[in-house]
Amino acid sequence: MVESTGSRSAEGAKRVAWCILGTGTVASDMVQILKQLPDTEVLAVGSRSAEGAKRFGDRWGIPRQYGSYEEAASDKDVDVCYIATPSLRHPQDCLLALENGKAVLCEKSMAPNHVVAKEVLDAAAASNLLFVHGVWSRFFPAMKKVREIIDSGEIGEVRSARASFCQNDGAGSCSALLETGIYCAQFLQWALGDPNQSKDGDGPVVRGACQTLHGSGNDEHVTAIIEFPGHKIGTFECSLAHCSSRSATIYGSGGVIDIPFPFWCPTKVKVTKMTGLGSQQWSEPEIHEFALPEDIVALSTKDGEIPGFNFVNSQGLAYEAAEVNRCFREGLIESPSFSTQQCIEILRLISDIGNYATANGK
């Protein structure tokens, strides 16, 4: 396990002090989570203006309020910076935090492609600082159960998987591949890959892709076919211009695993075994359900309002944040649940899909 010399030992730091960079909706959800984790303090917030920092800080009771990201990142009492700034700023704000000796949890997507991501991850490694890419799916108990079922052979040999994440919201404002496609790619990697053992040049390969571009130039609808080692095939569709079931399925020689909406932050897994002539004998489905953390609730603001969470299953951000706390206390520089290698592989896939679709588009 890779360890960090840039964090204090668990014995010397019972509390982990966080700084929030950014004051948007996901930042509001994360602040509510962090305030309910044991031995965790939301110490500071940074915004692009003093007014923005004060408004957010006063609302959520954050004592140190900075009118620039630079000031916030340089606070000597901060242990971890949560990067929730606009996504195009993520690489520079990650580097800013790392340059100031801070561990980092960065909202997805951490970078526009794998080349930029590697620059950030290399900087973290060079400084012996913890860096976690906030693809929160990886930290849900249901995702761990999916992997256990695959490894057990319960549905036979896994041969393929598919994921769909389409929503009619945000078309043109950003890339669908980076906004929702990244969740599809990480799911296929989890289901079909063995990223802890893969080597350079032995990873998944894009075999097909097409896209629809918005007038802004950003992709708004993308489909892809990916071949993983062992001739396993993954397919996915992502969009910011129309809706889908936002579910995922894994197909084996003896059955299937279904993960219903919302598959990227799942609480339910269904296993159906299929045998006999034409695989037409279906077993009674086995349902595995995982309640969200019961001790995590929507908090009231300082003026007594309870705005609630902005996103589905946001209580599950607690899994990700608790993992960051654990890794920081143990002196790690990456999470075993979502390693640097896995992160780079996913962003390389995203880049390859976009390049393939562009090169073969009409």
Quaternary status of these chains?
single chain
* Residues in helix, %: 25-40%
Number of strands: 15
Poorly predicted spans: 1-10
Helix/sheet category: alpha/beta
What's the overall geometry?
globular
β-strand percent reads 15-25%
Distance N to C terminus: 47 Å
> What is Rg?
21 Å
Query: Number of DSSP helices?
Result: 9
Order of helices and strands: EHEHEHEHEHEHEHEEEEEEEEHH
Mean pLDDT: 94
The biggest beta sheet reads:
9 strands, mixed
Describe the structure.
By secondary structure, the protein is α/β, with parallel strands linked by helices. 31% of the residues lie in helices and 25% in strands. It has helices at residues 25-34, 50-60, 69-73, 90-99, 114-126, 141-152, 176-192, 317-329, 340-359; strands at 16-21, 40-46, 64-66, 80-83, 103-107, 131-134, 158-166, 205-213, 219-228, 232-239, 248-252, 255-259, 268-275, 281-282, 286-289. Mean pLDDT is 94; it is low at 1-10.
